[in-house]
Specification:
181 residues, two-stranded antiparallel sheet, 4 helices, alpha+beta, 7 strands
């Protein structure tokens, strides 16, 4: 996940010293936050954005989150440009590591020439974690990249199809017909 979260309109910081192992909770976006997120993601509408979660201690100052994100989303059909509504119900898993641990792990990966891991841990900064960016990024990556309204087709039509004769099937048949004119 990205750690450039200063411009995101959704923030839910939690102090790690107040988190007990196995604690569960939920967060919901306000109407203003959902409007700002919908604008950032170019959505026609966003409703009921919420995440339920459970946090577990993972040792060495790390935390592990398991949860579920739910939202009602309205996107634009890529064919007809009509609104397409869908409901998301997405499992969420993430790890939170102290910033120093992330930096050391990144340095180790670069020294070994290894590929960066896909699910990079979220940072614990100043004794806090922020669930807002996790919700935003999970929503953003769960959206249908090509929303299409049911029953809409990509087929292109330029009027009635003309029957082809055996002689008229090659590209040169059209040239021959043109030459005979």
């Amino acid at each position: 996940m990205s750690h450039d979260t200063e411009h995101l309109p959704f923030s839910r910081p939690l102090r790690i010293d107040e988190i007990k192992d196995g604690v569960s909770g939920s967060i919901e976006a306000t109407a203003a936050e959902m409007a700002a997120i919908a604008n950032l993601l170019d959505l026609k509408g966003l409703e009921d954005l919420a995440m339920t979660y459970r946090l577990f201690r993972a040792g060495a100052g790390r935390l592990r989150l398991k949860g579920e994100l739910k939202a009602k989303v309205t996107q634009t059909c890529i064919v007809s440009l009509e609104p397409v509504q869908s409901e998301l119900d997405v499992p969420v898993e993430a790890e939170f590591w102290p910033s120093e641990m992330i930096a050391a792990h990144k340095e180790s990966e670069e020294e070994q020439g290894g590929a960066l891991i896909a699910d990079w841990p979220e940072p614990i900064s100043d004794g806090k974690i922020d669930l807002g960016p996790l919700v935003y990024e999970t929503l953003a990556t769960s959206l249908d990249p090509y929303p299409k309204k049911e029953g809409v087709s990509f087929e292109w039509s330029q009027g009635a199809e003309q029957p082809r004769s055996e002689a008229g099937t090659s590209p040169f048949a059209a040239l021959g017909a043109w030459k005979r004119r």
